[in-house]
Amino acid sequence: MSANNNKSSIRQIDTSIFREELEKRIQIPEGAFEQLLELWEYRTFKKNEIIMHADEVPKWSLFVLKGCLRQFLVSDKGDERVVYFAEERHFIGDLAALRNRQPSVFTFQAIEACELLTINAENWIEAQKRFTWWTEAYINGYQRWTMLMQQQLADSASLTTEEQYVRLLETKPKLLLRVPQHYIASYLGVSPETLSRVRKKMMNL
Predict the structure, then answer these.
(1) Which residues of 128-157 are buried (b: 16+ CB within 10 A; e: fewer)?
(2) Residue 86: left if φ>0, alpha if ψ -120 to 50, beta else—which one?
(3) How far is 34 from 11, CA to CA, in rounded Å?
(4) Average pLDDT across the chain, whole number
């Protein structure tokens, strides 16, 4: 693993987008952001590097400063299903497994070289104890994430592959340019060949 574990180095990096995302959810008391930041660590991962493995207790919850990563499941047959992509400004992780010290069913992998802020279970609990505003910010963000996941499930059940792909084009056009197509196919629950046919059909319209 290629990781920067030096906590003091977090003060030498630009964490402004982390603060901006929190301030979208809650007003941060003066000086409190810097105190919260002490509980996080800065880490880097190479392209295609596994950040956390399935069937292991997660080490951290993550915030993406730079790069893109995927969260996926592997079936008993060995087939992968991507459930989430996290780009810059996104939180990602299996918080329930982290906090309960239970193995996760998810694997997290860097699609590109990534710069991440990470927080372990002990520091997460400490943050909740010390900063009520952090808990509120997390709950607000988690509610939005839950709505997105519910919409994703509804789309997969009710929309055709072509309709789902069009929605991705409308909502996340930049993501489609940076993520390999076989990962997009996995996210949509179809084969790469099926996705290729859908894309060709749309280009010929």
Answers:
(1) eeebebbeebbeebeeeeeeeeeeeeeeee
(2) beta
(3) 9
(4) 90
- The label of the residue with tokens 């880490």 reads 43
CB neighbourhood size of 23 (10 A): 12
Rounded Cα distance between 4 and 167, Å, is: 37
With H, G, I as helix, E, B as strand and everything else as coil, classify residue 110.
strand
Structure tokens given for 75: 């079936």
Element counts in the chain: helices (H) and strands (E) = 9, 8
Whole-angstrom Cα distance, residue 205 to residue 165?
A: 15
- Residues 13-40: tens digit of each pLDDT: 999 999 999 999 999 999 999 999 999 9
Q: Which two tokens stand for residue 205?
A: 């319209």
**Residues, the chain, total?**
205
